[in-house]
Structures are given as C-alpha cells and as structure tokens.
Give the backbone structure.
Amino acid sequence: MLLSLVVICLTAGLLIFSQTLAYYGDEAFHLLASQLILLGKTPYVDFFYPQAPLYAYWTAACMRVFGDSWRTAHMFSALLTSAAIALLPGFIRAVIPEARWRIPIAITAVMLAGLNLLLIRFGTIGQAYGLCLFLIAAAFRLAVKAADSSARWLPLWAGICAGAAAASSLLCAPVAPILLAWLIRYGSHANRLKTAARFAGGAAIPFLPLLWISLGAPRQTLFNVIEYHLLYRKVGYPHYNITLADLSVLSGWLSSPQGLLLAFLSGLGVLSTAASGEWSEAGRRNLYLCIWLGAGLGAYLATPHPTFPQYFVLLIPFLSILASVGVYAIGSRICPLIRPAQLALAAIGLFALGLAKSAYRQRNELYSLWPEIEQIGRVVDQVTPRNGLICADEAIYVAAHRAPPPGLEHSDAHKLRLSPPLASLLRVIPFAERDQWISEGRFDTVVMWFPSMERVNMLGLPRLYARSTKVGDCLIYSGRTAASGRLPARASAENSASLNAKR
Amino acid sequence: MTALLGVVSAGLLIFSQTAAFYPDEGFHLLAAQLILAGKKPYLDFFYPQAPLYACFNAGWMWLFGDTWRAAHVFSALMTAAGVALAACFVFTRMRGTRWEFAAGAAAGVFIGLHLLVMRFGTIGQPYGLCLFLIVGAFWLTAESAIRPGKLWPLGAGFSAGAAAGASLLSAPAPVILLVWTVARRRARRLESCLLFLGGAAAAWLPVLWLAAEAPRPALFNLFQYHLFHRRAGYRATHNVALSDLRVLSGWLHSPQSFWIFLLAVLGLLWVSAEREWDEHRRSEMYLCASLVAGFAAFLALTHPAFPQYFVLLIPFLGILASVGVYAVSSRLSPRARPWTAPLAALAVFLLGLGKTAYSQRDALQNHWKEIEDIAREIDRVTPEDGKVCAGEAILFAARRLPVSGLENSYSHYLQLTPELAASLHVAGPAEVDKWIAGGVFDTILTWPPDDPAPARFDLARRYVRRTKVHDCEIFSGKIAAQ
C-alpha cells in the first residue's frame, strides 16, 4: 500500500514536471521527426534523422491518438519513466532475504530512482530516455524471470524489450548482449540454449522496421544509424576540446551529491553482493546481472565522443537497485540495531537534500521554453500563407504544426561536410546553401532566434520582407516584398500542404 | 605508514611553497612582522583576531626570517603534524586488527590530501597551527580519561586553549573536550577539570595580559568586532544569508567532503551498534563526532561564514571516515585483503581531489612572486624612513611598517565614533583620502588598473615617478612643494 502510494506520488510529480519545467533543446528534432512520420514520411529516406527510428514511430503513434504537441510526448515519457521505476520494487522484494527490510528497501530503490534529477529532467522530455528506461527495466525483469522459468514467452519478451530499447536509442545497445550473455551463463541448464535463442529472436523483432527501411535505402540507413555516430559526431565542435569536455562529463558524478551518494551506496551493494554469504544463489545471480548491466552500460556510454551527462540516465534503474542493496548491507551488517525505516528515511533524506542542492544549482536550466516557442509558433502560423515555406528551428516547426522544406528537418545536419551526391541522397543542406535560399527570398517566413542585426542585414531580411514581428527573443520576417525571389521547390510546398490538410 | 605520512608532509611543504596563497593572509603576516618590530596587537594596531598565531609566527620569523615562505613552512609543518597525530591515533585504536595500517593510512590521506586542508593549512593564517593543536588536544583528552598523570588533562587544556587563542574559530574545542572530560572521568573528575581549565588559562595568559593593558581595544578586537561588525564593507545588495547558505551546503558538491562525510556516518553507525570495541574506545569516537557537530554548529553561526572555516572539522571527519572504511572492510568483505576496500575509498577520494583542484585551478595560483616584485620596486623607490600607502601583503613583503591605521584594510569599512576609532588605531576611508591628498605618503600604490585614485588625487602631477609593475601603479618621488 505504502509502496504503491510512493510510486503514485512519484508518477504525479514526474507528470507535473513534464508539463511545466521539462525542456531540452535537442528534443525538437525528435518531435519533428514524429510529426513528419505522421505525414507519411520515412526517416532516412525522406529526411535526415541520425537516430534509431523506433522512438519517433512510438511518439508518432501517441501523437496520432492524443494530438501532435510536445505535451503528448512529455506525458508519455513521464508515464514510461514512472513505469520503469514501478518495476524496481518487485525485484527488490524478491532479492532481499529479511522480510522486515523488504518494503523499506523497495521504497528506497524507488525514491533513489524517482528523485534523481537526471531522471527527472531527461526522463520527461520528447527524447527516447523515458521509453528506453521502461524497456530496459522490463527486459531486465523478464530476463531474471526467464532464467528460472520454462515459459517460452519470457525470454522472447525479454529479447523484444531489449531489442526495442536499442531500436529506440542506440545508447541501449549493450543491454541485449549483456542479458543474452547472462542468460547463457546463469539460465537454467536444461533450456539454456533454447532460452538464449528465443531471446535473440525476440531482440531481432523490433529491428524489422529498420531492416525494412534499410532494404529500400541502404546507404541512407547506414549513414544515419552507424556512420554518423562513428565519424561525424564531432562536427559542430571545431574549436572545442571534446576530450576535456568528455572527461568533465565522466567525472561529473563526483561533484554531484546524488551521483556520489548513488556511487557510494552502489559500491557497498556490490561489495555486499560479492562477499556476503546471506544471499540466496538466485538473489546473488540476479544482483550480478544488475552489476553487469551497470558496468557494461557505464563503459559503453563513456565511449561516445562527445558524450553527455544525460546518456547516463540509463544507469539509474540498476544503480538504484544496487544502492538500495547497499542500504540493506549497512542495516544488516554494519549497524544491525537500526530500524529499517530509519535507515531508509536517512538515505532518502540525504538524497533529497542532494536533489534540492543540484536543482538550485541548475535552476537556470530547469525552465521550459515551450510556452515561448508555442507563442512564436502561433505568430508564425498566423503570418505565413497556407502552403507557405518557413525557415526556422525544429521546435518552431513543431509548435506551428508546419513541415519544414526538405533539408531543414535537422539543424545539426547543416554542419556536415559531405560530397554533393551524398548530401543530396541524405537530404542534407549545408549552412551556406540555406543562407543563400534565405537571401534569395525563397521563404515566406524567416524566423531568427537570438538574431544579430549584422546577420539579419547580411541576409537582407529587412529588404526582402515587409513585416518583422518580435516575439520574445525571436524576430519573425514575413510578407515577401517584390525584391524576393521565386517560389521554392515543389516538394517543400507539398510538405506544407499535406500537413495543413491533415490538420 | 611512516613513509606515507612523510609523502603527505612533503606534499604539503611543496604545496606551501608553490601554490598556496590567500589574499587575507597579508594582514596576519603583517601583524607578526609588527610584533617582531616590538608592537603589541590591540594596543598598537588593529587586529581583530586572537593573538597567539601572530605571536607564534613572530617567534618563528625571528628564527627563520620574516618572509611568507617561512610562515608557509610553519603552517605546513603544523598541518603535517596534525595529520600525523590523527593517523597515529587511528593506528593505535585499530592495533591488533588486520586493518591497523590501512585505516591509519586512510586517515592520513583523508585529512592531509583534502584540498581544503592543503589550501588553507599551508598559508600564513592560523589554520595549520589550529589543526595541530585541536588534534593534539583531542588525543590528550582521550588519554587523560584512562591515564592517571596530571599532565594529560593539563596538556589537553593547554592545547585546546592555545587553539582558541590562535583563532577564535577553535573556541568550541575546549568546551566540548571539557564536557567530555566531565562526562567520562570516574575518579578525580574535579581535579581533571581544574587541570584542564588551568591549562587552557595558561595558554590565554598573553591574551589576558594584553586585555589587562588595554581592555577596551582587546574587547573590541576579540569579541565586539565579530559580534557586530563582521559584515562591514559588504554592499547593501549582497545577501550574506544566501551566501552563507551556499557555503553551508557546499560540502554536498565537494566530492572529498561528501565522501568522507558518508564514510564518517558509516563509521559512527558501526561504532554505535558494534560491541567489538570497549566503551572507552567507542566514547572516543563519540567525542570525535561531538567535535564535528559542535564545530559545524559554531562555524555555521559566523555571519558571514567562509568555506575555509570548516577545515577544522576535517581531522575528526577523517578519523571517523577511517573507522567507516574499517567497518566496510571488516563487515562487508572480511575475507578480502585488508587494503582492498581502503584503496577503493582512497581512489574515489583522490579522484575527488583531482576534480576539485581542476575546478579551483584559478584559485590555486600563488601571487607572492608578483607581490615580491612590487615590493622590491617599492623598496627601491621609497626613502629609508618613507611612508608607503599599500596593501598589507605588499607592506609585509617590502618590510615597511605601515602608517598607524593602515595595518588592516578591513578596518577602513568600520563606522565608529572618532574616539573609539582613535583608540583602536582605525582610520576611515575619509581619513586615508585626507592623508593621500595631504601628501603624507612618499609612495602610493594603486590597484586594480581602473582604480580612480590616480585621477581623483591627481597623483601623476604630485609624484615625479610613475612605475607599472604587473597590474599595479606605483607613484613615488613626492614633489617637494607639497
């Protein structure tokens, strides 16, 4: 009862956060990709999307039912993150040997996950983290069950979840191989190979859409899913010491009170798992899986160059489990006199103090720009003709429910330096070409966010457009003058027309 | 362990001569130089601090020269001695277990390689001396509870009193140690307490002597300033309470502090539940915890508080943290090698040192070389008995005694009645301006580069020479007409 109440409260908190403060600049291109899928476009084939595609399809499906706004995406991310948290107590209750510790430790695990600022910030936005958290937590639970069970569907579903996580974000790629290796090592002996085969089969299923796309457009798929991440992640940082920034990210947990507390308690959990004789054989084996996942994911997430703090949100379910086991180790072996509830409250209290301190430090980032973007989107929609073309950032296309002209679906793509045939195949437009389109007056509306007047004049916007409207930090140029060029490519107009028709 | 403590001590000494610097150390060093010149704190110059550190430092400078290097060596040696005492204390308490070396070494590293200790225990301020004295007082107090001699409580009282006499930030130490002595001693409790108090009073004799000679200035410098005038000089818009809150919660974002706090809590939990140790040994750990809590509460009340004040907690947190390491090793992995868990704990701690040092790299710069360059130029351009208007560190480095009233730049912010200001040797900004305008000084140093003083007082026309050294401008060669 208490545990359910805690999970419900956390879910409510995450939902409220997702609708009020949750925002991250990069979520816009994911949301735009979903909107484009709703229009019938295919990632890689029709637009540049250097991500695994499943999250965009999932969000598109949600948007079809609940409306194509950022609120829908945030709501589902928050619900999936909450579902991932709700999957933890069942595991804890099965693994903790002493009955009086089970509920307090389960609540500790839930709170250590749910009050983690990284999870609160990135598990509630329009990016793949929420979905991935749910899928990897589900895959973990199902794999644990599959190791002891002869039920055929368990390894299959574990594989489906692990595969779906990797197909939603490549950051989850190590989960499936780790689970597979663990099932082979620890699965019940008689069915070990069959279980592994079912798991592998299940993991392949979520990749079918990707396979289908890659059959039609192998080069584009290869570039978006693999080549971009191996060779082009560093574009856009020409004067930036990425190695130093990576080191700063990788050592970030040291100066984060929540990160350090989680590491400390997890360390105790690992020690206790490895050295203490109080665990059942199954309990220790399952905790080893947690350690494997934490270590494997941690090592893998350290390799992207550049890496970012939010990637490590995927470790939180496993670290929370290990940390709560660490709390149990303190209570059972170091200080047996303490009451379980007291120790759990102390750990949660300290963690909450860390949340408050980190939230205060990051207060300038805990601010949603979506209300402002929506306001800009409304004005853009108002001043642009029905099938007119807009040059803007992805978030404004999403808010205005307007499709971008081909090549403008992903602003990072402008930084890529590719051969013209490859750029054309991938629908990538360099910055210079986009600027040329602007100065030729091809767009009906041009939105400049944080503009410098020097750049505005260089592009000739005051000459090309009759109206300029200021909304927040945005300048919106609309109403093309006679000095403007001719109408742009037909495909762009078709994009806009079809979206408007759908609306 | 001796080798490890040697390495830590060598590290502290090297740090003290290379990277250690804090702007506020200037007035402490100048006070020591003034004492060396025969002046008395409170009576002859404004010094809102307990005087023992300046007196000790003056004695040291008399032996080894009045330079910042000598003062830094003194502080580093005192800190190293404090670290060694704490490590040996842990070592003796763990004797007989497999973890005696590991736990003792952990305590030495937790304390000696904590960046706050490295930065502030090696400069010309009382932290180094206080660290040594409070750890010494702690150990002597712990011993006095089980040993019969009279010297133990006397020594404990003297050390604790001397710590408070070196810096008022150490004031909780004698109180907490006395309360513990009262609570712990079974036999001859009154005698022990009296000996403790006698030792503390002996350490305060120089202070009492100064107070007897000039009660009003002593009262102001020791108490009144700290109770009512600490916020003088802060702009009205500066929210001192908010910056205090930031300082008080700063340990959460300090990897080293948070790490040893977590281990210390673990150590304390283990001590409270475990019956492996006898009651006395456990009560020593409770004394450690009481010192942490007492110091934290007292230092949190200083308004404004600064992070370096909390350096005094670290020896006791370090001792408890090493007990925490022992608890983890002996309870969670008893069959593992005794160094496994301590090495893991120390690795995280040292990673924290790297992370913190990198984030504070701008503050880890020794400006004494620049100060010495400026001082050399001042000394060159100023007549033998000439008067210099400059900051305390530059006056100290140039070995020039300041004009009465310029010994402590913070005193200029005080708003006092003229009579009180005169008795305290405090000069207000208007008075200093009048001195500059009246041509009292043979040499005037202006800093920073946008200092309005040169234009305001037309210094370029009133002084023959204008020299630029680093970011400072030095006006010298007073024109005779003035």
The CA atoms of residues 76 and 122 of chain B lie 4 Å apart. Residues 68-93 of chain B form the longest helix (26 residues).
